[in-house]
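Crash report, auto-generated. Payload:
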Amino acid sequence: MRKKTLSVLLTALMVASMAAGCGKDSGGAGGSSENDGELKGDITFWHSFTQGGRMDVIQEAAEKFMDENPDVNITIETFSWGDFYTKWTTGLASGNVPDMSTALPGHVVEMMDAEAVIPVDDVIDDIGRDRFAEAALSEGERDGECYSLPLYSHAQVMWYRKDLLEEANLEVPETWEEFAEAAKTLTKDGVYGCSFPCGSGDLMATRFLNFYVRSGGGSLLTDDLKADLTSDIAIEGINYWLDIYENCSPKDSVNYAVLDQANLYYQGKTAFDFNSGFHISGVETNSPDLVDSIDCAPLPRLKKDDPIYGAETSNIPMVIWSKSEHPEICKAFIETLYEEETYTDFLAATPVGMLPSITGISDTEKYQSNEIVQKFSNAEQVISEAVELSAAIGFEHGPSVEAGLLTSQSIIEEMFQDIITNGTDVEKAAKAAEEKMNEVFESVQ
Amino acid sequence: MKTKKIDYGRWLLVLPALIVVGTLLVYPIFSSLYYSLTTKHLIKATYDFIGFDNYIKVLTDPDFFKAFLTSILWTVASLLGQIVVGFTAALALNRVNHLKGVYRILMIIPWAFPSIVIALAWKWILNGVSGFLPNLLYEMGVASELPQFLSDSSLVFGTLIFINIWFGAPMIMVNVLSALQTIPQDQYEAAQIDGASKLQQFMYITVPHIKVVVGLLVVLRTIWVFNNFDIIYLITGGGPANATTTVPIYAYNMGWGTKLLGRSSAVTVLLLAFLLIVCFIYFKIIGKWEKEDK
Amino acid sequence: MSGKLKGKLGNVVCHLYLIILSVIAAFPLLWVLLCSVKSSGDLTSNPTSILPKEFTLGHFKNVIDTLGFTRNIGNSLIIAFFTTVIAIAISSLAAYGIVRFFPKFGNIMSRALVTTYMFPPILLAIPYTLVMAKLGLTNTRVGLVIVYLSFSVPYAVWMLIGFFKTVPIGIEEAARVDGANKMVTFVRIVLPLVAPGIVATAIYTFINAWNEFLYSLILINSTELMTVSVALRSLQGAEILDWGSMMAASTLVVIPSVVFFMFIQKYIAGGMTEGSVK
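Recovered output after restart:
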């Protein structure tokens, strides 16, 4: 008798939770709070905020969620960005993936291709579809369904050292030519003008080359999604960065990944760098004295009268994995992360580094009361503008596997290494890299 | 009756090891062989059987041969260095009477380093901007600018080999030393009475006693160094410009980077085939030594 | 007289050689230790100064308090310990069996074992992940111990065969004449004789398990269960490239290991046939 009651109850619960999970028209924002107590199960959440404030905020949000839903258990695992690709690809092969995770924009297309993630349109609708930037949502869109939603956004801009520029009587460079000149002038006394990173296992050289190519209106991909490293602008870009490497960069940078590169700027060893607002907290932690001397400006242009452009925006996505037995819990939990209080706290962990992916946050009093946000209001504006002007590398032709492969295979990095260490002819190396890239593209067809 | 009992007993001794090997190694061997004939992709659900296509693709890829050559150089140079340093250190240690324990503890230290710490420690010491050694050489005037041990293509391979010798020599040393101490001292005493020189004692007592153990060490180190992935991967990742890409790194990039698991399997099967041949030759030599001993 | 002088000179040369090797061998450890207590600014602005300008334990505090690194050390110790114990138990039996009772077939068996050792770890990674997932052992310490046996056992058997072969059969026969059975002979006579070899093999097994990187990277997801290698590696890929903390974490990983060696190294050097031959 008792057993029967229990099973009836369980069935009812399941039906109810499924309805809550799937029903798009279940009544808007109240989604999670209405279903409190109905959620039951364990989920695993992988994220890559390995330390500091972001990790704490997420942890607190999970604890709060578990308090409100006593039958829910959220296990949080962290991993470094560099390991994430190996983790989920091998995990997928062995059925060992989480219920929900953060991801990199370039990975989402591959995840969709592998049918590893599920649509999250109902979550987006609950939070408010019009609060997200359309471009950001489209990065995870396929056949009219969204498979990812952005957690936060940032964009690449040019960082410089005000004090060094002043000392040398230099203006903030606006064109690539001015930039090279300034970088060369500032390369002295143990300071490098600008480090050019091209370590394999990261996408830094691709990123830098993409800046240049985008500044000339070009793309690293052709319209039919083939690699394009031999266009005039690409060759010009390669030569440009080789010149920077030769004259303003520590020679070790041929092995640099993102952190090695950023670290030099944090320590005041480079005068210029390219990054997002994350540079602020990096400098603040490593060299508090330098915080007052840094600022950022839009990426250099080809010609002075060219319009300001954006070359790379990262909307860090969240996904829910197909394997998950409790997508409804993931969805309800994700929604709580976007609640004003939690979301603002989360962003405040790296102010200006993480910019809100939804509207209605940046103008709140709480968000604006952050000291760093106030101090770096110029930077925030520059980056916010850049965020709107671009997309992930290679996404100018829409999200594609090819765009993901452009950055994940280190082919452009190896091309630079080949030219630098073996003295290979630039056009030859570009041609070879282009062929190699196209071969990789074919392998996923 | 009695002989039968002993028969079972002897099988019982080796059974656990056979089970471990059977389940943990035989299955993966066959699954890899099978995948090497398919288009198996790391994250795609379906794959096709394509015969020897993967092998043809690999064997016509100049990068594979470059990696193969790098592997051979890496193995031979590291191994020679490890043996020379490890062996001479063991002999020296066996000879001195004072401070033996101190030397042994100090020299064994590298062996206590996990590969990730090897990588971090050396990357930091050799760091091209804030590293101890480049800055020291620069300040001493030995180098006119900071030497880039891990990014200058003329230095990086040698640097990695040095690190590998640094790491591997202690292991050889400990094992040789342990073998040296199994030699009964009375043989040396007898030889001395017979008027044999130190060199003769070394050649006719020391070498025959330890050559089998050393031979085995060489076999195992060859395999280990040839297959080693961590050290290179964690320090240079195979770069710059593939200057330090060995076959395992090549296979890893193929399997996890390009995600062509089938082709990556083909690479590792070829790697295995090569090791089998090398070890077959080694075993011939060691087998001959063992016969000589008897 | 000249012989003695030559001997002395030889000793000096040996000492010099050993001193040089010791310095090279120990320097990275020393440097890691020193850098773990230097301030971040000191690390980058004074790359060649040996002693820290200002002594700080901040990096250790960060590594232990914020990152919970001691937990990772515990994981690695547990995993390496069980791998070693199981591998050595299985392997000494097998090695002894092969040496004594399988004169012909034993050669084939031992070669088969070494052949398996040749298998590139990278190749095994995928099948292992699949098998462990099927068994529900992914992300468990047990799973990792099992996988570690795959490379520990063949190596240990192989190495131990070399040591068991050095035991003269005459000793065993003498024991058997004295009335001891096979098991007693093995435990009482043979094992003590090869004890130094077993210790050397055990150390090797332990260190290999302790050092292992690839499988623990792929099989362990949870921060709670991460081994030191993977935890350290994620430190390198973390959000700030903090060399001080990396050196502090490295110190924590390497020190127990070095201490363990100091404690155990005298067994390696113990004479193998000491006592029984004389």
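Post-recovery validation: Residues 269-278 of chain C have pLDDT under 50 and may be disordered.
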